[in-house]
Amino acid sequence: MISFEESMRLLHSLDVTPCGVEKLFLTQTLGRFLAQDIIATTNSPELPTAAMDGYAVRYEDMDKKRLKVLADNPAGNEVTMPVEPGFAIKTFTGSLMPEGADTLIPIENVNLIGEEIEIVELVKKGFSVRPVGENYKQGETLIAKGSRIGFAEIGVMGSLNIVMPKVYQKPKVAVLATGSEVLEIGEQQTNAAQIRSSNNYTLEALIKQHGGECVQLGAVKDDKATITQNMHEALHSADIVVSTGGVSVGDYDFVKDVVRNELGAEVVFKGVVIKPGQHVMIAQKGQKFIVALPGFAYSSTVTFMLYVLPLIYRMQGSEYKPTMVYATLKEPFVKKSKKTEFTPCRILIEDGEFFVDFAGNREGSSAILTNMLGPNRALAVTTPQEGNKEAGERILVWLLS
Ligand SMILES: Nc1nc2c(c(=O)[nH]1)N[C@H]1C(S)=C(S)[C@@H](COP(=O)(O)OP(=O)(O)OC[C@H]3O[C@@H](n4cnc5c(N)ncnc54)[C@H](O)[C@@H]3O)O[C@H]1N2
Ligand code: MOO
What we know:
Belongs to the MoeA family. This protein is an alpha/beta fold. It has 4 domains: 4-18 and 169-315, Molybdenum Cofactor Biosythetic Enzyme, Chain A (3-Layer(aba) Sandwich); 22-37 and 144-168, Molybdopterin biosynthesis moea protein, domain 2, CATH 3.90.105; 49-130, Molybdopterin biosynthesis moeA protein, domain 3 (Beta Complex); 323-399, MoeA, C-terminal, domain IV (Beta-clip), CATH 2.40.340.10. The protein is 17% helix and 30% strand. The chain contains 6 helices and 26 strands. The longest helix has 19 residues, at 297-315. It is elongated. The chain starts with a helix and ends with a strand. Bound molecules: ligand LQZAQKY5 and molybdate ion (MOO).
C-alpha cells in the first residue's frame, strides 16, 4: 500500500490527453470548460458613457449655476452635437457622453427652469461618467482557457458577441457496478441476500455534476468473463472506465485480476493507506484509464472524488481543486485508524467563522452513504499522524457544496 500523498503524486504525474474541442451556441455552454482564452476585442465601454440620468456638462461650467439645455441625448443615440461652454445636453443612463462634456449632473441635483437648469448641488469632475475600458480593456484576457463556464462567463462572452465559444467535449466515463448481490433499480428481487445498487447512480450523478458524460453499464454479477467483456467494451466507448466492487481479497473479487491480467492494462497503483477506500486501483491502457473502486457505497463515492474527478477535469483542460478550509471542532473528533481519513461531517458558518460537527452521523462501516445527505456536508480530512481531537481544536475540512 502506498501513502495518500504518493497516490496523489502518481495520479498527477499521469499523462492525461484532453478531449477534443467543439463549438456550441453560447447558452448551451453552461457548465462546460472553455477550450479558448476569451480576450476582449474592444474596450468596454468603447466611449465615455453616462452612468446616471442627468445633464452632461463641462466641469468648469459648474460655477455658472445656470446652463442652457441644448438637446436631448437618449441611450442608443449616436450623439453628434458637442457641449459648448455654458451649455448642457440632457443625457441618460447608458447614453454616450457628448463631446466636450466631462461630467454628468444627476437630475436630482438641478431645477429645470424653462430651457435652463439651475445647479443646486455640485458634483466632482467626471461624476457619473463611465470611462473607456471601465469594464475591460481591449486585448485583456478575461476568461482563461480551461475555466468552467458559469453565469458570469456566459454574460461576459455575450457582451463580447461570442456566439459559439469553443469548449472541450465531455469526457466519457463508463460506470460498471459489480456484485452478484447487487440489483439495479427496478430489477425484481428474488432472494433476501440481494441489495439495491447505489454506486452506479451516485457515480453517474457525480460524473454529470462535473461535466462528464456517463456511459451507464449498470450492474453485473461477480463473473470474471462478464466483467472482462463489459470492461473491454467500455474501454472502446469511454475515456475512463470506473468499476465498483470486487477489489479486495475475497474469492469472488475478480475486478482486480481482470484489470491486471485480462485487459492488459498497466497498473499505476493498487492500495492506498486511506479510510475509506484502501483497495482502490488505478490502471492505464493507452490514453484510457481504468479506476476500480471498492464496493461500499461511501468508499466508492469518496474514492471517485479523490481519483476520478481529477482525471475528468484534466480531460476538460482544467484542474480539480477541492475547496479545503480549516474549521473549529464543535465536538471531539475520534480518529479511527492510522490512515489518511475522510470523515463525513457538517460545516457551519457562525459569525463568519467555519465550525464543524458530526451531527446526525451514523456509526458503522463504509456502507453508509446517508452521512453525505443534506446541505452543508463536508469531509474532515486527517493525516495518519493525527489522533483524536478535542472540541475547539482545528481540523481540515473538504467542502462538498
Ligand atoms: N478480509 C478482508 N475483507 C475485506 C477487506 C480486507 O482488507 N480484508 N477490506 C474491506 C474493505 S476496507 C472494503 S472497502 C471492502 C471492499 O471490497 P470490494 O471492493 O471487493 O467490494 P465488494 O466486496 O464487492 O463489496 C463491498 C460491499 O459493498 C456492497 N456493494 C457492492 N456494490 C454495491 C453497489 N453497487 N451499491 C451499493 N453497495 C454495493 C457489497 O454488498 C458489500 O457489502 O472489502 C472489505 N472486506
Ligand atoms: O477501505 Mo474500505 O473502503 O475502508 O471500507
